């Protein structure tokens, strides 16, 4: 609750989380105003990518502030375990991630007319899982930053390679075999694959289920790594 109250008082962060992905998707829709097919092709993937990136940024910086302010150190002196503490932070950010995913999905699928052939709730489910993944990755990667500037530097280091190889710029089967192999171990790849299947198929098949399970698995793994790398003191 404390984290949620802090986020509620930080209007700039709320605006960034809630408005940035929809604004970017709206800009994309206007950019491809004369080519709806192009928007329908790249829109689903970006509906998953934008929330992931935003939550990664917000979570990593917010967690770093908790450590540099001494709040995290004080919490770790209590009987609360590291895993419980990370779950608490994760749940707090998950509320924000859910609101972000709902807003972005409603705008994109509703007002902007993005074509989704699957059932109506599925884009929201995929978007929220993507937001949760970004939250978990942000919690983990914040352990490797000593300052907010370093936390910002983690964004291109952790996300841009995934964006380049996830299949949105070039289909994975057209990549060099080595790059295709690397893309298979990147979580964002499965976010994009899941969104692509939702836009082209009406069936909830085993491939879509596989993609969503991998996203959930990567989220859980990132939270586990965050608990392991969580430091008591800020250097």
Describe the protein's architecture and organization.
The radius of gyration is 18 Å and the shape is globular. The protein is built from ten helices and no strands. The model has no long low-confidence stretch (mean pLDDT 81). The protein is mainly α. The chain has one domain.
List the helices and strands and how they pair.
Blueprint: H1 2-9, H2 11-31, H3 36-68, H4 71-76, H5 82-111, H6 121-141, H7 148-165, H8 177-183, H9 187-200, H10 206-229
Helix pairs in contact: 2-3, 2-5, 3-5, 3-6, 3-7, 3-9, 5-6, 5-10, 6-9, 6-10, 9-10
What's this entry about, in short?
Helix content is 77%, strand content 0%.
Keywords:
10 helices, 0% strand, single chain, 235 residues, globular, mainly alpha, ABC_2_transport
Q: Describe the global form.
A: globular
Output the number of helix runs: 10
Radius of gyration: 18 Å
Euclidean distance between termini CA atoms = 27 Å
Residue windows where pLDDT falls under 50 for at least 5 positions: none
The average pLDDT score comes to: 81
Main sheet overview: none
Q: Can you give the helix content as a percent range?
A: over 70%
Total number of β-strand segments?
A: 0
Report the β-strand fraction as a percent range: under 5%
């Amino acid at each position: 609750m404390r984290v949620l109250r802090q986020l509620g008082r930080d209007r700039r962060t709320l605006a960034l989380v809630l408005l940035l992905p929809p604004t970017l998707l709206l800009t994309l829709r206007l950019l491809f105003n004369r080519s709806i097919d192009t928007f329908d092709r790249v829109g689903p993937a970006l509906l998953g990518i934008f929330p992931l990136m935003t939550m990664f940024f917000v979570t990593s910086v917010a967690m770093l502030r908790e450590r540099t302010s001494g709040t995290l150190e004080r919490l770790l002196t209590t009987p609360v375990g590291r895993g419980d503490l990370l779950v608490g932070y994760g749940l707090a950010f998950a509320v924000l991630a859910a609101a972000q995913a709902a807003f972005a999905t409603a705008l994109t699928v509703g007002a902007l007319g993005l074509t989704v052939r699957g059932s109506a709730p599925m884009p929201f489910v995929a978007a929220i899982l993507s937001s949760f993944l970004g939250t978990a990755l942000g919690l983990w990667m914040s352990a490797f930053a000593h300052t907010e500037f370093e936390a910002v530097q983690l964004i291109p280091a952790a996300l841009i390679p995934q964006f380049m190889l996830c299949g949105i710029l070039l289909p994975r089967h057209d990549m060099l075999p080595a790059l295709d192999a690397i893309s298979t171990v990147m979580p964002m790849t499965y976010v994009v694959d899941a969104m692509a299947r939702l836009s082209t198929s009406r069936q909830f098949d085993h491939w879509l289920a596989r993609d969503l399970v991998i996203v959930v698995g990567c989220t859980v793994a990132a939270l586990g790594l965050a608990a392991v790398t969580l430091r008591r003191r800020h250097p």
